[in-house]
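hey so u asked for the seq, here:
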Amino acid sequence: MSVQSQIDEGIDRSPPIAILLSAESFLKSAQYLKTGTELEYLKLRFDMPIYYLYSHAMELALKSFLRTKDFDGKQLSSRKYGHQLSELWKECLKQGLKLHPVQEACTDQLVELLDPFATSYEFRYVITGYKQLPQLHVLDADASSLIASIKRHVEAHRRQAEQSNGATP
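ran it, structure tokens below
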């Protein structure tokens, strides 16, 4: 079912909480691979799959925040946002995402480093050459913190929506 047909039916098949839970799953998958390579029970030729999972987790978390600000699936899958971490990040800040100043500065730098690889699909397809990427432990700490911060916002939004609809949490 296309995004447009879901909109036409009035069905929200991508509520903010669902997108956030998907972000958490990508984060946990990245952490599992990261730990496996660190403990050497998993040998990968490249770390790109791990970077992809962290990057996608961050993308989904940012999109879940924007869904709480009435951005629909069509907007978030548009060329403007799509896999554009930098654009998603800027829009989240513009829409009122508040983080600790140190976390915000760190996320800003990580988004700047990851964005070219996410937008060009380089995390998914091999392109040889020098790459400037953050250390995985830094990426893990920031992605975890970002998702936890956005989760609090998404859960508050969900509770508010339930109360306004007369549902009991």
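The chain has a mean pLDDT of 89. Helices lie at 3-9, 16-38, 48-67, 73-76, 85-94, 101-119, 136-164.
lmk if thats what u needed
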